[in-house]
Write a structure and sequence with these properties.
By secondary structure, the protein is of the alpha/beta class. It is built from 10 helices and 9 strands.
Length: 276
């Protein structure tokens, strides 16, 4: 049997599944991230905004399976913000536990504000920069302005949430401005992901991605939206047990227990009185 011929924008890695499924809005982009990690083979990944760690763990899992010597700096205050909400230390502890157990030589958690961490990252040292911090226009613009010089020529910057235009989100505005100045490709599913080239693009697969005509771009988006849907479904399914546990532990669940007991008793009584 002849080997399958893959289109330039896909490979067997596009079908990989993540090893961890914390709650995330980024789930649909895991298949493309696996492909991109193979194409770039980055030695350095920097992520601005990690939250529950899903995207960090996808990058780290790809590096692990591919045998890449990659360092992933996950930068976050782990305090939350106006868009995702504010939270306690439990989120950081959960991310740190997985990172230490599964990716001790790959993932470095840098807890702090982006501006404070920037001096610790040398210029032109980053192959892949992922921007997913606070989403107001001024914040995203500041992140790009401050961190652009950390990316080497030929590197890539990812922007999440470029398709969100409500609730004060401003990523789409920054993305529209940058798209006029750089080679880019955009996905619309899972709140949108922008892919931006920094300098000359060396890999022919990436060049083809950025140069794709409208028909080809539509095929690329459709393929990755389809593959991403399976990951998103798994994220949702994994979240259900935790949500149920939280419900059972809640005050409202305890207070309504007598009503549920009465209701179940009535259902059994009616069931015994009905002909079968």
């Amino acid at each position: 049997m002849a080997a399958r011929e893959w289109p330039f924008w896909m490979s067997p890695l596009s079908y990989w599944q993540p090893a961890h499924f914390p709650d995330t809005a980024w789930g649909g982009h895991a298949p493309f991230a696996f492909w991109l990690m193979d194409v770039l083979a980055p030695r350095s990944v920097v992520e601005l905004g990690t939250h529950n760690g899903f995207s960090t763990f996808v990058f780290a899992e790809a590096a692990k399976r591919l045998g890449l010597d990659t360092t992933i700096d996950a930068v976050d205050s782990w305090e939350g913000d106006e868009h995702i909400g504010f939270y306690g230390d439990e989120v950081y502890r959960a991310v740190a536990e997985i990172a230490a157990a599964d990716y001790p030589d790959t993932v470095r958690l840098r807890r702090g504000y982006f501006a404070d961490v920037r001096p610790q990252v040398p210029d032109a040292s980053t192959d892949l920069l992922h921007i997913d911090g606070r989403h107001f226009y001024e914040d995203v613009l500041e992140d790009v302005t401050m961190w652009r010089s950390s990316v080497r020529d030929g590197g890539v910057i990812l922007f999440h949430d470029i398709a969100v235009t409500e609730r004060g989100f401003g990523v789409w505005r920054v993305w529209d401005e940058l798209s006029q100045q750089h080679p880019t490709f955009s996905f619309r599913h899972s709140y949108g992901l922008g892919v931006l080239a920094v300098g000359e693009v060396a890999d022919p697969r990436l060049r083809a991605l950025f140069d794709a005509d409208d028909a080809t771009a539509d095929r690329i988006r459709a393929d990755y939206e389809r593959l991403g849907a399976a990951v998103t479904e798994r994220v949702l399914l994994d979240a259900v047990p935790g949500q149920l546990a939280a419900l059972v532990d809640s005050e409202s669940w305890r207070l309504t227990r007598p009503l549920r007991v009465v209701w179940q008793s009535l259902k059994r009584s009616r069931g015994r009185g009905q002909p079968r």
